[in-house]
Design a protein that fits this description.
8-stranded antiparallel barrel, PorT family protein, about 10% helix, single chain, signal, about 70% strand, mainly beta, Beta-barrel_OMP_2, OMP/PagP_B-barrel, Porin, about 220 residues
């Protein structure tokens, strides 16, 4: 009886070890990045935001503990940010400022994965973004309601000193993988960190849709 228990225990341990698997891979894709600005404004002001359409690229490592659970870490680069359209007017005086913010960001996403099937999984995690560079391109249009009298400007400035370095963004995602190592994934990252060092909270959220390839495996 003891021998049977010993054999059964060894068999279970062997099955558990064989179910574990570590794979490395590469991925790239499309990002739709938006900024949200929270600050006080009066009735004469209007502030709108639009997304920036950009990309991401990098590598990953995935470890499966068994057929259903695993973890994944990644190292990605993406120029995130967004666009802002600010308008103010009173009587015949108006002012419009259109800005594009670009945050050159090194992303370190870490996630827990649940494999619903061999090919399909869902993930929950967080992206830790390190902002390496920050630039703002601004177009200004101002006037006093007199035809032909307008002031316009178009400039790009470095605002790294005005931006906090860390951008934490929890995310939900899903992945569909083929047996040959090719996979497709999508996730939404919800920015919770205040990126502005001045008054008014600025957050950065982004959607990622892409394709990749994992090496090794069965």
């Amino acid at each position: 009886m003891k021998k049977l228990l010993l054999v059964g225990t060894l068999a279970l341990l062997g099955a558990n070890v064989s179910a574990q698997e570590t794979r490395f891979g590469v991925k790239a894709g499309y990002s739709m990045s938006t900024i949200k600005v929270d600050e006080d404004q009066d009735d004469l002001e209007e502030r709108n935001t639009d997304p920036s359409h950009t990309f991401y690229v990098g590598g990953l490592v995935e470890h499966k503990f068994n057929d259903n659970f695993g973890i994944q870490g990644e190292l990605l680069y993406s120029p995130l940010g967004g666009k802002e359209d600010y308008n103010a007017s009173e009587d015949q005086v108006y002012f419009r400022e259109k800005s594009k913010l670009t945050f050159g960001t090194l992303l370190i996403p870490v996630s827990a994965k649940y494999f619903i099937s061999e090919n399909f999984s869902v993930s929950l995690g967080a992206s830790f973004g390190l902002i390496l560079s920050a630039k703002q391109k601004t177009v200004i249009d101002a006037g006093i309601g007199i035809p032909g009298l307008e002031l316009e400007g178009d400039d790009e400035v470095d605002i790294k000193d005005e931006v906090n370095t860390l951008n934490i963004a929890p995310f939900l995602g899903a992945e569909f993988a083929l047996e040959n190592g090719l996979f497709f994934d999508a996730r939404y990252n919800y920015g919770i960190s205040d990126l502005s060092k001045s008054e008014g909270k600025v957050t950065n959220s982004f959607l990622q849709v892409g394709v990749g390839f994992k090496f090794g495996g069965n």
